[in-house]
Specification:
Elements lengths: L4 E4 L3 H12 L4 E5 L2 H8 L4 E5 L2 E5 L3 E3 L6 E6 L6 H8 L3 E9 L6 H8 L4 E7 L2 E6 L2 E6 L3 E4 L10 H7 L3 E3 L3 H21 L11 H17 L3 H4 L2 H11 L6 H7 L10 H10 L5 H16 L6
Parallel strand pairs: 1-2, 1-6, 2-5, 3-10, 6-7, 7-8, 11-12
Antiparallel strand pairs: 3-4, 8-11, 9-10
Helix pairs in contact: 1-5, 3-4, 6-7, 6-9, 6-10, 6-12
The protein binds NADP nicotinamide-adenine-dinucleotide phosphate (NAP).
EC number: 1.1.1.169
Organism: Pseudomonas fluorescens
Family: Belongs to the ketopantoate reductase family.
């Protein structure tokens, strides 16, 4: 039997991956937060994927971190701020050369996991797929996209990419995954915080073009300084295109705040500001947006880390 895919976190992306892998016949195990969540899951019919309005439910076996089966391959699908503690709970089950796929947005959580698990292979992912939960154990596949996977330490692609192919998960092995993650972080920093501060859809930033341009210039300077010149190329142009193409959408950070959910700010704008400080780079506008956002979150009773 082929190596099971253990999936940590049955949220939007975890469910999106679990259901597609299960549909293709790959062995999948879902690792849930605790016994109460496991009981809730087991009381239902399984995991439901809603795609193009059609629902399909898959009986994916669930377990908690206390289960005993060794883990060879782990898809980490928690939010960036939950990753380290979630992994700590099951660390004893990881075989020495276990492979982890880290789906988190932003930067910072991946390096933290790599330091936490020096013997494991950590594969970083950057995805443009979009999904949201419309109920417990249900996910709506809202935006078809692509997932880039890569390992900054070892450029060789793993053989199990065949599983993703069989599951119909569009993907590509990337030898410059850090550049992709930095670029996505920069796009996020130029758009998402401002949509929260101005309480607008992405298209609303067309009324704040100067501010967007200034942030892009500072972000490009940061990327150059961090050894990521390719991620800086044409940044402002791409930000403008994204704002136009997604004018009617609310950014993920806007939606988190609107739903009183914790944001991943520390792994996005917070990470950018820390990197600037490490390089003694003065980026006043970026820093000011960070301060305004932290204040905004605090004023709305939300964590700012
Ligand atoms: P999500 O829907 O909030 O799912 C996170 C899941 O992690 C939740 O089900 C949560 O459990 C679970 N979890 C947290 N701590 C856990 C623990 N200790 N043990 C087991 N499970 C635990 O988040 P998401 O939207 O899938 O996002 C995951 C990551 O992917 C984020 O970094 C996000 O930025 C990135 N991403 C998401 C999308 C998207 O469209 N959703 C797209 C690209 C990138 P409970 O259900 O019990 O709370």
């Amino acid at each position: 039997m082929s190596t099971p895919w253990h999936i940590l976190g049955a949220g939007s992306l975890g469910t999106l991956w679990a259901t597609r892998l299960a549909r293709s016949g790959a062995p999948v195990r879902l690792i849930l937060r605790d016994a109460a969540r496991l009981a809730s899951y087991q009381a239902g019919a399984g995991l439901t994927l809603v795609e193009h309005g059609v629902e399909q439910t898959y009986r994916v076996p669930g377990e908690t971190a206390d289960s005993s089966e060794p883990i060879h391959r782990l898809l980490v699908a928690c939010k960036a701020y939950d990753v380290q503690s979630a992994i700590a709970q099951l660390q004893h089950r990881l075989v020495p050369n276990a492979e982890l796929v880290l789906l988190q947005n932003g930067l910072g959580s991946q390096d933290a996991v790599a330091a936490q698990l020096p013997q494991a292979r950590c594969i970083f992912a950057s995805s443009t797929e979009g999904a949201f939960r419309d109920g417990d154990w249900r996910v709506v596949f809202a935006g078809h996209g692509y997932t880039w996977l890569g390992d900054a330490a070892h450029p060789t692609a793993p053989l199990w990419l065949d599983d993703l192919h069989a599951a119909g998960i569009p993907h590509e092995w990337s030898t410059n995954i850090l550049t992709r993650l930095w670029r996505k972080l920069a796009l996020n920093c130029a758009i998402n915080p401002l949509t929260v501060l101005y309480q607008c859809r992405n298209g609303g930033l067309q009324d704040h073009q100067c501010e967007v341009a200034t942030l892009c210039a500072e972000l490009a300077e940061l990327l150059e300084c961090c050894g990521q010149p390719a991620a800086a190329e044409g940044l402002h142009g791409e930000v403008q295109r994204v704002i136009q193409a997604t004018a009617a959408n609310y950014s993920s950070m806007y939606q988190d705040v609107a739903n009183a959910r914790r944001t991943e700010i520390s792994y996005l704008l917070g990470y950018a500001c820390q990197a600037a400080a490490r390089h003694q780079l003065v980026l006043p506008h970026l820093q000011q947006v960070q301060t305004r956002l932290v204040d905004y979150l605090a004023a709305h009773g939300l964590a700012s880390n």
